[in-house]
Backbone:
């Protein structure tokens, strides 16, 4: 599977990554070579093989439905780039 | 003082040969002298270290404390440290001061260990050479023209250069074992789920695991005793009692069944590397072990499966970096999409962006079955190969890395050639098994590592197997010249 510049631009958009115009060709080449490596998997038949999600046969642990976390909004917002009145600020979304 | 093992240092502290403050000052001075050239630390926490050292001394004076009380450690900068910058090697987190401690950090602090600082690493742990760090590459103290390996390259270089007695690392595809091999250290990646991942910045959540990087197997056991254990704050942490990993270090190896996967000794393995690994296996035969060939036929596909699974999980994990809640934010965003795109585009380096894009592509509509599902099926086959092998043998041995430390720039232009540095380590992560790297000799003057792989939860056995070898060899005691 070989990716061209249009593919890279589409993927970068899906991943919300700004890529410099001048770097797109290099990414297309790099990503294509990685996909060529990944293609090796097609050499084996995996029909009927159960996909492995976890190395050990364990079930997701559940906890009691109780409040365990305290409100730490101030502490967490102290490291935010831009906040006001307890809210995270982003560029205007609704006109 | 800096050549002593953790057990020796603890003994000296107990006998008051030196205080933790003196020990800490000694290592801080070594960091000041040598780290300008090595770049193994991103942040040195001098003040905090001395404060912790004084607290440890008070504890030791009362006759309290354990094996790590008062011992200086280096922490990989992937672990969140409250009040101390945690960067994960990225511009994205250059300004990030974590609001809490990772469980591993909390456990080290509770044990009375002293944190010297946070070590350099490949950006978001994505790399095998430390060249992807935003804070510049780390030099290998054995030859500063070569890489220390990665992603835990800062931890490896710091311990190898005796700037810290031991360090923590994390291993998603070989990031503890490969730098340990390239810097002549003992490194252990535990069974998936043994060490808590809480507060450890996520790369590929089904593979990530933390472990110790030390100068001996005994030191690794001492570290693992503190690091391992159930943590309700990590949903993948295993609810299991943890043994004392130092208890069985001296068990005799007579009757140990070693399996050598024929796939690990084929084309692609450097001839010098093959011969030092074979010599190490001969030592094991002298210790009473028996050796037989095993086969891991699907392991040849491990790099291919990994480069779907790890990028897919990273593309999801790293979506949290959006320029809104913490981390880097671009200037003058025109709109919300521009804020996301430029914050991420400017905050992440090239390798991280490559992996996010591969993962995004693999998970995108229409490709999921061909890539992610297929990779998880291959992963099952790789895991079954190991299960089959462990019916016949107790441990599997082979090289950690196909070659010794390579030169800067040698692989950084070609991602695929870099990825193949982890060809022997990745299968272990995919299967979730524990694996170690142990110094086993030198090739062209640079260290080589023997990889020892065990069945699930066999860490105590692996440490025993490594320790007995270190009783009859002295490779692990060799230090790079000038340190």
Residues:
């Amino acid at each position: 599977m070989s990716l061209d510049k249009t593919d890279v631009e589409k993927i970068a958009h899906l991943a919300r990554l700004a890529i410099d115009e001048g770097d797109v060709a290099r990414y297309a080449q790099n990503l294509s070579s990685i996909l060529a490596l990944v293609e090796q998997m097609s050499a084996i038949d995996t029909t009927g093989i159960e996909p492995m999600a976890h190395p050990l046969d364990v079930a997701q642990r559940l906890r009691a439905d109780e409040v365990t976390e305290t409100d730490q909004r101030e502490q967490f917002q102290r490291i935010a780039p831009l906040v006001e009145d307890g809210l995270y600020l982003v560029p205007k979304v609704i006109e | 003082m800096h050549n002593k093992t953790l057990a020796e240092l603890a003994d000296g502290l107990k006998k008051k040969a030196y205080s933790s403050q003196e020990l800490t000052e000694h290592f801080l001075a070594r960091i000041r002298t040598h780290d300008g050239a090595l770049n193994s630390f991103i942040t040195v926490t001098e003040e905090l270290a001395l404060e912790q050292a004084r607290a440890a001394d008070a504890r030791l004076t009362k006759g309290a404390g354990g094996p790590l009380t008062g011992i200086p450690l280096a922490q990989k900068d992937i672990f969140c440290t409250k009040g101390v910058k945690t960067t994960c090697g990225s511009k994205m987190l250059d300004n990030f001061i974590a609001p809490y401690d990772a469980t591993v950090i909390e456990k080290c602090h509770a044990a009375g260990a002293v944190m010297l600082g946070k070590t350099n690493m490949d950006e978001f742990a994505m790399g095998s050479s430390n060249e992807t760090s935003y804070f510049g590459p780390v030099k290998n103290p054995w030859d500063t023209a070569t890489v220390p390996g990665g992603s835990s390259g800062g931890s490896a270089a710091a311990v190898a250069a005796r700037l810290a007695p031991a360090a923590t690392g994390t291993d998603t595809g070989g990031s503890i074992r490969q730098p340990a091999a390239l810097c002549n250290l003992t490194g252990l990646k535990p069974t998936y789920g043994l060490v808590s991942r809480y507060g450890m910045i996520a790369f590929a959540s089904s593979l990530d695991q933390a472990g110790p990087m030390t100068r001996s197997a005994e030191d690794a056991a001492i570290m693992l005793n503190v690091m391992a254990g159930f943590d309700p704050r990590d949903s993948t942490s295993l609810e299991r009692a943890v043994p004392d990993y130092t208890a069985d270090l001296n068990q005799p190896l007579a009757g140990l069944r070693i399996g050598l996967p024929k796939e690990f000794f084929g084309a692609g393995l450097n001839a010098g590397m093959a011969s030092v690994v074979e010599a190490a296996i001969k030592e094991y035969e002298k210790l009473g072990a028996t050796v037989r060939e095993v086969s891991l036929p699907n392991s040849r596909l491990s790099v291919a499966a990994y480069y779907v699974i790890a990028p897919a999980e990273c593309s999801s994990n790293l979506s949290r970096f959006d320029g809104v809640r913490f981390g880097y934010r671009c200037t003058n965003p025109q709109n919300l999409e521009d804020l996301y795109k430029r914050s991420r585009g400017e905050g992440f380096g090239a390798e991280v962006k490559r992996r996010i894009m591969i993962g995004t592509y693999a998970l995108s509509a229409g490709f999921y079955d061909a890539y992610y599902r297929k990779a998880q099926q291959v992963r099952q086959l790789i895991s079954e190969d190991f299960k089959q092998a462990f019916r016949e043998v107790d441990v599997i041995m082979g090289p950690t890395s196909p070659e010794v430390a390579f030169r800067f720039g040698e692989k950084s232009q070609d991602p695929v050639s870099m990825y193949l540095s982890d060809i022997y380590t990745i299968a272990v992560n995919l299967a979730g098994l524990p694996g170690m790297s142990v110094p086993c000799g030198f090739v062209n003057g640079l260290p080589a590592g023997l990889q020892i792989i065990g069945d699930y939860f066999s860490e105590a056995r692996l440490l025993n197997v490594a320790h007995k070898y270190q009783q009859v060899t002295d490779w692990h005691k060799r230090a790079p010249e000038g340190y």
Q: What stands out?
A: Chain A touches chain B through 55 residues (CB under 8 Å). Residues 42 and 48 of chain A are 15 Å apart (CA to CA). The helical segments of chain A are 5-14, 24-38, 73-77. The two ends of chain A are 42 Å apart (CA to CA).
